[in-house]
Design brief:
The protein is α+β, with helices and mostly antiparallel strands. It has one domain. The chain has six helices and seven strands, in the order E-H-E-H-H-E-E-E-E-H-H-E-H. A hairpin with a 7-residue loop joins strand 4 and strand 5.
């Protein structure tokens, strides 16, 4: 199953250094049956994958809130994995990856451009307040979400980390 794993640039560096992404279980998002049902009017796989990617990008903001040392850029790692279980109480697209995610299963990464850093930093500082219903905080999170993530092939991860 294709999954979208929220991450950070620091975790991406660890992926290159250790050959695996984090330790399971790992939170992720995917095109689940519940997500398909929610988007009942759309059978467009790309649209459903974009929805899962967007949810993972928002979860990346939460990781940045927790890791104040990480560069303020959202990261989503795309991988094809086997061991996945749905977590519908979190979100209709939420899944838990039960096994390690080695670099060989990673298909691509999506990362903010440098010009998004200020908006992403503001979003990371506001994400908890936004989750609790703060309108100003929600606006700061939405500003970050207005930046499109850039796509990188796996062989571009090393050069990306050297630049950023």
């Amino acid at each position: 199953m294709r999954v979208y794993l929220p991450s950070t640039l620091r975790e991406l560096r660890d992926l290159l250094d250790t050959g695996t992404l984090g330790s399971p279980p790992l939170p992720a998002y995917a095109v689940t049956p519940q997500l398909r049902e929610w988007y009942a009017e759309s059978d467009d796989t790309e649209e459903l994958e974009y929805a899962a990617l967007s949810l993972a990008a928002r979860a990346s903001v939460r990781l940045l809130d927790a890791d104040q040392e990480a560069p303020r850029r959202r990261v989503v790692v795309v991988a094809d994995v086997e061991g996945v279980e749905p977590v519908p109480k979190v979100d209709r697209a939420a899944v838990r990856v039960l096994d390690e995610v080695p670099l060989r299963l990673v298909k691509a990464v999506h990362v903010d451009a440098e010009d998004a850093e200020d908006d992403v930093a503001a979003a990371a500082d506001a994400v908890v307040e936004a989750d609790l219903g703060g309108e100003d905080a929600a606006f700061r999170v939405e500003r970050a979400e207005g930046h499109e993530l850039l796509w990188y092939a796996t062989q571009e991860i090393g050069p990306l980390l050297e630049l950023g």
